[in-house]
Amino acid sequence: MKKLMILMAIALTQISVYSAETLKQIDLSGDKGARVDGSAWSSSEIKGKVYVLFYVDPDEKDLNEHVSQALKKANFPKDKYGSIAVINMAATWKPNWVLDSVLEGKQEEYPDTIYVRDLEKHLVKEWGLKDESSNIVLFNKEGQAIYKILGKASDEQRDELLKLIKNNL
Q: What is the pTM of this model?
């Protein structure tokens, strides 16, 4: 009986991981943050493709590098897949002008990724993401969150993320 209850708990956990969740719309502009080029960004733009969003404390930028490399290697079709990197600028002691310079370089190096600055931890407050860490959120084509990784991704989570992207393209 105990084993059955454990299996049921695992099954329910798996079901909740895959349920689609509509997250509160976030609009970043001006003092709240923006894209690297200074233009406004809205989470309402997350539609039409499968998107992976990384929400990262600059001090934890390498925490999920193994996931970034796996996504790069997978080479998903750009017309069906997109990536967004939102930087939690309020989570670090590093000056914004230094981070802005780094982000401009990243935007040039990875022009297909949308780079966004969150100056006041809006995604932490509104979406319940883990502060001072690295988070990954997968969105389906309708803009609903279908998978979240809060903190360091395990190899199993990385593989599940890749599988979910393939299944939702």
A: 0.87
